[in-house]
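Customer escalation, tier 2.

The customer says the design service returned an amino acid string that "doesn't look like it belongs to this structure." They asked us to rerun it and document both sides in this ticket. The original structure tokens are below, unchanged.
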């Protein structure tokens, strides 16, 4: 007969399990390479831009259309790439989006000044690198929209995926000082 637990019982059992340590073990080991050598933790650079909402960004409900947030996320990613990559990297590589995830939290309206902030995940996975974009009213910490996009690095000539290498990562993610 299967064990039947309520959700609170299941959560409590999981939290008390010797296999679950609240993520502490993962955090301790996150600075170890596969060969066991300790490396400094990394922190992604935050790239930000401000702009004012235009009439073309507004939908029939009187606020920024959801698809506009995705356009802004793409524009932020491209601007960040162009600001950080060197001329050879710009010539050798292109990026394509493989997936967007968007959470819309509050409406933005015509004429409001907006700040968009973007950063990449600490470590890419092969050719895929997750990027985060928060978009909200300028001067506030609460985002009106949060977007996570998965970008794939391609060789510009062959259009084939390329693993994101250390020299490229170093342009967007810095070692955290002690």
């Amino acid at each position: 007969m299967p064990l039947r637990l309520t959700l609170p019982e299941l959560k409590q059992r999981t939290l008390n399990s010797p296999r679950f340590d609240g993520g502490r073990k993962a955090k301790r080991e996150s600075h170890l390479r596969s060969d066991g050598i300790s490396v400094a933790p990394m922190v992604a650079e935050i790239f930000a831009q401000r702009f004012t909402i235009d009439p073309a960004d507004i939908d029939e409900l009187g606020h920024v259309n959801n698809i506009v947030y995705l356009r802004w996320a793409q524009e932020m990613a491209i601007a960040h790439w162009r600001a950080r990559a060197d001329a050879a990297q710009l010539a050798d590589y292109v990026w394509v989006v493989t997936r967007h995830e968007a959470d819309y939290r509050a409406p933005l309206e015509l004429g409001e000044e907006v700040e968009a902030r973007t950063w990449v995940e600490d470590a890419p996975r092969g050719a895929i690198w997750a990027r985060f974009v928060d978009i909200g009213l300028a001067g506030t910490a609460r985002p009106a929209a949060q977007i996570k996009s998965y970008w794939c690095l391609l060789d510009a000539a062959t259009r084939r995926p390329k693993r994101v290498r250390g020299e490229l990562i170093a342009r967007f993610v810095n070692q955290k000082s002690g």
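Tier 2 assessment: The sequence is consistent with the input. Residues 127 and 163 are 4 Å apart (CA to CA). The first strand starts at residue 42 and ends at 44. Sent an explanation to the customer and offered a walkthrough call.
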